[in-house]
Amino acid sequence: MKAIKYTVNNQKKKRLKDYRGLFFIMPWLIGFLFLQLYPFLASLYYSFTQYSVLGQPKFIGLDNYIRLFTIDPDFKKSIMVTMKYALISVPSKLFFALIVALILNMRLKGINGFRTVYYIPSILGGSVAVSALWRLMFMSDGILNKLLELIGLPSVNWLGQAGTAMFTICLLQVWQFGSSMVLFLAALKQIPVDLHEAASIDGAGKVKRFFYITLPIITPIVFFNLIMQTINALQNFTSAFVITNGGPLKSTYLIGMKLYTEGFSNFKMGYASAISWILFAIILIFTLFIFKSSDAWVYYEDGGDF
């Protein structure tokens, strides 16, 4: 009888601990269910409806998706612009992040202060205020053209030409390399010094040591940064909206702007939901492609797969 009572008491205590754990995660669970999962599933339903917020959603099947791919030229344009933006900004951002991380990994006096300074843009770069400041800097009478005039060079219409407008918003994305840089720096710190010393004794120079030791070892971080920055670039909205408003001639009309225009300017929430799901599919395809390609270029210390 004592053994049975002891077992029953243990089961009650275990159940009580389970309830306590559930109680502590309840705020996150409620937030996940009502602020993430429900909107996620609701947008899928709305993507098959004609929904203008003010009225009831009317089920129309695949009409929204068919219209996007067959009738709407702005949608195709926004996809091409978004791809171009991602292909320019992501490699550039990772390149500069790695270069700066290599510099900050050197043993220099006051290097910790420089590390902090270089990380600050990553904290501020995505805000509307910084995008507005970026716009002021690149306007016809902005500070950048003033500097060009001081050194005798002609001013550039940064925001009024298709090529330079895309360069401007890409440059803002690249300027926010702080988070990637910190991860690269952490990876560089983990590289055993013995490997570089042994390679140096064997006659390998700095360039060879970088390509045959440093770069292979940090490829898992390159892989992680590539995925995260690709996702961020494909979802970008703020810089294109604030700096160029999608112009000129919709040369910076990202898919995020297309989604915003249809949903919050034209009040076509069903149509906007369809765009959001297509964007989700594009991000998923890019992510799966990067994962699949990682077998050929990502090195893991234990020799295993991700």
UniProtKB/TrEMBL annotation:
Subcellular location: Cell membrane
Membrane topology designation: Multi-pass membrane protein
Keyword S-adenosyl-L-methionine part of the UniProt annotation: no
Residue ranges of domain ABC transmembrane type-1 in the record: 79-290
Main location: membrane
Transmembrane segments: 21-41, 85-104, 116-138, 158-188, 209-228, 269-291
Record keywords: Cell membrane, Membrane, Transmembrane, Transmembrane helix, Transport
One annotated GO biological process: transmembrane transport
GO cellular component terms, A-Z: plasma membrane
Listed Gene3D superfamilies: MetI-like
PROSITE patterns: ABC_TM1 (PS50928)
Pfam families, per the entry: BPD_transp_1
UniProt record similarity statement: Belongs to the binding-protein-dependent transport system permease family.
PANTHER family: ABC TRANSPORTER PERMEASE PROTEIN, ABC TRANSPORTER PERMEASE PROTEIN YESP-RELATED
Name used for this protein in its record: ABC transmembrane type-1 domain-containing protein
Organism per entry: [Clostridium] citroniae WAL-19142
